[in-house]
Amino acid sequence: MDANEFRRLGHALVDWIAEYRERKMPALPVMSQVKPGEIRARFPAEPPARGGGAAAALAAVDRDVLPGVTHWNHPSFFAYFPSNTSYASILGDLLSSGLGAQGMSWATSPAATEIEEVVMGWLRQMIGLSPAWSGVVQDTASTATLTALVCARERKSGFAQSHAGLQCREAPLVVYASDQAHSSIEKDACLAGFGKDHLRLLATDDAHALRLDLLEEAIRRDLAAGLRPCALVAATGTTATTALDPVAGMADLAGRYGLWLHVDAALAGTAMVLPECRWMWEGVERADSVVFNPHKWMGIGFDFSAYFVRDPQHLVRVMSTNPSYLRTAHDAEVRNLRDWGIPLGRRFRALKGWLHLVDEGVEAMQARIRRDLDNARWLAEQVDAAPGWERVAPVPLQLVCLRHGQAGARDEAAVNAHNLEIANRVNRSGRAYVTPSLLKGKQMIRISIGAEPTERRHVEALWAALREAAGED
Amino acid sequence: MDANEFRRLGHALVDWIAEYRERKMPALPVMSQVKPGEIRARFPAEPPARGGGAAAALAAVDRDVLPGVTHWNHPSFFAYFPSNTSYASILGDLLSSGLGAQGMSWATSPAATEIEEVVMGWLRQMIGLSPAWSGVVQDTASTATLTALVCARERKSGFAQSHAGLQCREAPLVVYASDQAHSSIEKDACLAGFGKDHLRLLATDDAHALRLDLLEEAIRRDLAAGLRPCALVAATGTTATTALDPVAGMADLAGRYGLWLHVDAALAGTAMVLPECRWMWEGVERADSVVFNPHKWMGIGFDFSAYFVRDPQHLVRVMSTNPSYLRTAHDAEVRNLRDWGIPLGRRFRALKGWLHLVDEGVEAMQARIRRDLDNARWLAEQVDAAPGWERVAPVPLQLVCLRHGQAGARDEAAVNAHNLEIANRVNRSGRAYVTPSLLKGKQMIRISIGAEPTERRHVEALWAALREAAGED
Question: Which domains does chain B have, with CATH numbers?
């Protein structure tokens, strides 16, 4: 492809994306309706011997790719989490691809490191963290939490990685979180070598938040058994219900017992752009690390996870490698962000954050987030007022967890099946996409509000679709 | 930003990228010449309260961003590794951003999973791996190798992660590689909890490749000491010199001692598209895992690392989590690629691979790779024929490692300083960008050939620049 073909196909693709978002998407089923294997079958099994096929490939996207796409930017996308990928962040990422620059070291493209420092400074201020924090972009909260647990492991073990690692035969290190913690906590604890036997997933209170009494009890029991409590993971907004763990109380315990405190605010971090929401993670300044995902509700395109630490030297000590082929003349004066995470190579992700933030601005973002909180409160009120419907968790943010038919005569298994069927019916209809989920054994329907184009009327339409699927209309 | 502004700014940005690549870049210094802090100072320290700034931001890229960019696609970029980011892959990634789809589960966008299966099947065939291998896209070789070491750890320990993890007080597990292995091997072994005491970085032969005699000796010594040999990492093309570890011999030892064999062909994997290069990793079919980076020499935009495993069920067993909010009706029939790596969220990276491959085609790619191999051989011949210059490693691929002034009267430290100065002089001149590096204590200059626009004349100009910097002209 030469520059002229790139211009021609690039213009057409930009137009296609605008057309997709503006006109096509609202008319498409939110959840892809294809069967397994249907998309794969549209592509040859063997690689193309001859080139020149880009124009034809792009022309076939509507036919071969789009039917297999679930539309995360659809106004009626209520599943998983809002992942908006604004127009501006699309352009920022296009610029990153066009430059093709590497941010592994400062010298490999100084702008990649320094604009990342700027954007992470903006994000830090936006969510109300003090200047004591330093930030870095990572791909996902899963990876950031793995990084946090490894750092916790190394701090507690006196940097055992430089000798026997976790195979040092000292007292085993233990990690604590609630049983509502994201699945990545368990995965990361396993990847970091702790083992499931050394992960305590504690029962939660009626609001599905971690119980401090059970946490301290577990810590004391482990100490009495000769184990070494190592790290606490607090969720500000759990995945299932946006429950709020008591960060301040956990920070007290972390201080008392010398533990690492990691705050997982993957989705809810965006709400901290609103000063009136910051009570939700009161105590966060005493944590060791915080992760939130601007690629969720904030609207920056995936993947852009913001990881903040109090002590970057600790992070660097754990992550740094310094082979001669990566040393440069400026190393003493600059940040080499390869030492702030697991991958060596680093895409110039700051550009999509930069462009998104200068395009939306903090005030408009605050208004958008307040709109979504209002919409969630509205839906919660409808559920509370509707006979036969039950709200199964508080609604501090943009997530409403509900359930139908609790009061009826049918047994629990039948109610569960009924609610799974409601969710599946809505999803199959293509009118909206919601997440069926289990909460402490009960089947519920999880409604996550916050796609950029989602207005009140879309939430009203969803509520109608749910009632219809429940057999009410 | 509305759809119309997106169209307008998008067209302008596509044109800017074409103009940057075609006209601006060749005239710019290859390595950014800014001082630390210079780019950061061009941006406000506080986040923008008001939005609407995208057009102005993009208009300021030439002034505020470009001076801080090191031009990885420049025809005279000879540093680190070729990282080409073709026009077609830029468009593929733009499509991915535009769709904004998530590939964490099959259901979250079936096309993301199935086109990844297609593209990974193409890549597998292109590098000559048998159908016994299954592939998945990861961000970098660092992450893929961490994944491999964790899988090795779990297989050897009987999946200890499900109980005591590495804290099980069984005999410590040991990892083996050469002292020329990439820095990520040490980092990954530390992250995975093995500890540096349980990593053997073995001395290499005169061609800088792993010595099988030392490897077997180390394994036996560890067994005798009551340790558990666990994993071998073979480099097909080391970072410093593209040395070729003896994969077949390592596979023999892996078989004999029950070890995991991981092949790191991050750069050299692309050369396997040439059948005449496949002797370089003879024995690869008996490895457990292989990683190569299509985002290097192959030309797909960063980040796109190809990780192949013989036994995906093993990978899934180590990586899988299955919380209720991620379960879907089709789970039994499909791949959920979140279980094939560390991050949960997954960008639709297959699109940039797909578009690159249909645009370049295998035959043109083979011709391009052969061109680069020819250019490296040409440079090696010049070095060999030039008095005062020394080639410090064999040239099986596109990397030439050289050094000036070896024969002179000056002491080793002075020769080292002289060669570092030659590299720095070339880099500061902006005419080319090379990597100064140490090889077994000797300062050398590492010339990596393979940017897409690099022709013979650019290598000739580099050779002239090197001789000039050495004080020869």
Answer: 3-30+32-69 (1.20.1340.10), 95-360 (3.40.640.10), 367-469 (3.90.1150.170)
- Alpha-carbon distance B250 to nearest alpha carbon in chain A (angstroms): 25
Copy the structure tokens of residue B290.
């292989």
C-beta atoms of A163 and B98 within 8 A: no
- Assigned token pair, B227: 């340790």
Distances (CA, A) of A353 to A128, A337, B258: 18, 17, 47
Residues 6+ apart with CB under 8 A from B310: B132, B133, B134, B287, B288, B289
Residue whose tokens read 């969710």 = A423
Q: Retrieve residue B444's tokens.
A: 């050398």
Q: Sign of dihedral through CA atoms A252, A258, A264, A270?
A: positive
Of B263 and A314, the one with more pLDDT = B263
Distance CA A238, CA A254 (A): 20
Specify which residues B389 forms β-bridges with: B404
Instruction: Give the 3-state secondary structure of residue B446.
Output: strand
The residue in chain A having the minimum alpha-carbon distance to the alpha carbon of residue B190 is A161
Angstrom CA distances, A307 to A75, A341, B343, stand at 29, 10, 14
A238 near A208, Cβ under 8 Å? yes
ipTM: 0.96
**Cβ–Cβ < 8 Å for B273, B127:** yes
Task: Yes or no: say if B142 and B184 are a contact pair by the CB < 8 Å rule.
Answer: yes
Q: How far apart are CA A348 and CA B68, in angstroms?
A: 12
Residue B173: burial class (beta carbons within 10 Å; 0-12, 13-18, 19+): buried
- A 10 A CB-CB count for B367 gives 12
What is the H or E stretch that residue A128 is in?
A: none
Cα A9 off chain centre by: 32
Is residue B372 a contact partner of residue B454, using CB atoms and an 8 Å limit?
A: yes
Q: HSE on the CB side for A213, CA within 13 Å?
A: 2
pLDDT digits (tens, 9 = 90+) for A66-104: 999 999 999 999 999 999 899 999 999 999 999 999 999
Q: Map B266-328 to HEC letters.
A: CCHHHHHHCHHHHHHHCCHHHCCEEEECCCCCCCCCCCCEEEEECCHHHHHHHHCCCCHHHCC
Q: Which of B288, B221, B234 is nearest to B266 (CA)?
A: B234
Q: What is the pLDDT of residues B410-446, one digit of tens each?
A: 688 999 999 999 999 999 999 999 999 999 999 999 9
Query: Considering only CB atoms, which chain B residues are within 8 Å of A28?
Result: none
CA distances from residue A383 to A48, A376, A389 in whole angstroms, order as listed: 54, 11, 6
pLDDT below 70 — which residues of chain A?
Answer: 406-410, 473
Nearest CB to A167; choose among B56, B100, B198: B198
Strands B305-309 and B134-138: antiparallel
Task: Share the mean pLDDT of chain B.
Answer: 95
Q: From B150, B153, B125, B124, select the one nearest B136 (Cα to Cα).
A: B124
In A307-455, alpha helices (H): 312-319, 350-360, 362-385, 412-429
B409 contacts: CB under 8 Å, gap ≥ 6: none
- Do residue B80 and residue A301 have CB atoms under 8 angstroms apart? no
Which candidate from A90, A182, A334 shows the least CB-CB separation from B97? Answer: A90
